[in-house]
Design goal:
The protein is of the alpha/beta class and about 270 residues long. It is built from 10 helices and 7 strands. It has a domain at about 15-155 and about 175-200 and about 255-265: 3-Layer(aba) Sandwich (Rossmann fold), CATH 3.40.50. Helix 1 (about 15-20) packs parallel to helix 5 (about 85-90).
Length: about 270
């Protein structure tokens, strides 16, 4: 452990951490979207970005920690995740010099200790994105870059609408509006290089294939207000019927509204 780290515990986000820890062994087998989005985020890094130390924030199984390690071979890499099961899976595969359990809203790293914060499809689980941006500003050295991908309202809208036709429970994770990302990034004190949303549509042969994938990713419904217990057969049949209305020639669509943001900490005047 280097001087970049400081002591500090995790906030109580045990449910999110436990869900992704359980999914560590199955995650990579169903992570096609996550890989496509992460590679797109890598392609959006400024050409001038040559970090001495990078942080993969929400590293999961370490797939992009390894990609960052290959791209910035001479840099020191830190892989961080709130789910210790993910870290246990990632660490033997290397890619980073340090594997750290931590929360994006309370990062256990010292001020101005990184040149690049890379975070792909992790920050949507954070309740307070303004705090995340504040932590990024604290950690980045002058000239350092925050590159993130996240999800906004409109994600899994087909599944949400289908459940809405069945009952009034919350069955699909909630996400913030794109306008919220715009306002928070503008107020972050970081220079906004780019921020846009881009839909990604996946197709499935049936609803069970989609819900199985969400569970294997650890990204199934974690919201307050979700129904407890097993879903009854009648409600499930009603869901299947409602979702069929969205069917396309390729299968049942599942739309993800992906947010891509790149920000820089400006040099002091």
């Amino acid at each position: 452990m280097t001087e970049a780290f400081q002591a500090g515990g995790l906030p109580d986000k045990r449910q999110v951490a436990a869900s992704f820890s359980r999914a560590a062994d199955s995650y990579d087998s169903v992570a096609a979207l996550q890989r496509a989005v992460g590679h797109e985020l890598l392609a959006r890094l400024p050409e001038s970005c040559t970090p001495a130390r990078w942080l993969d924030l929400g590293c999961g199984t370490g797939y992009f920690s390894r990609a960052l390690g290959r791209r910035f071979a001479s840099a020191e890499g830190v892989a961080l995740d709130i789910a210790e099961g993910m870290l246990r899976y990632a660490q033997p595969l290397a890619g980073a010099q340090h594997f750290v359990a931590g929360d994006a809203e309370r990062l256990p790293l010292r001020d101005e200790s990184c040149d690049l914060l890379f975070s792909s499809l992790a920050l949507q689980w954070c309740a307070d994105f303004a705090v995340v941006l504040g932590e990024a500003r604290r950690l980045l050295r002058p000239g350092g870059v925050l590159a993130f991908s996240s999800l906004c309202v409109g994600t899994l809208q087909e599944l949400r609408d289908s459940w809405q036709a069945v009952d009034g429970f919350v069955h699909v994770n909630r996400f913030r509006h794109f306008e919220d990302y715009q306002g928070l990034c503008a107020a972050s004190g970081l220079q906004l290089l780019s921020l846009q949303t881009q839909p990604q549509v996946l197709h499935y042969p049936d609803v069970r294939s989609l819900t199985h994938e969400l569970k294997a990713l650890g990204a199934h419904n974690l919201n307050p207000g979700r129904p407890g217990g097993l879903t009854g057969r009648a409600r499930m049949l009603a869901l299947l019927a409602a979702y069929e209305q969205f069917r396309q020639p390729q299968g049942l669509p599942a739309t993800y509204q992906v947010v891509y943001g790149v920000l820089r900490k400006e040099h002091q005047a």
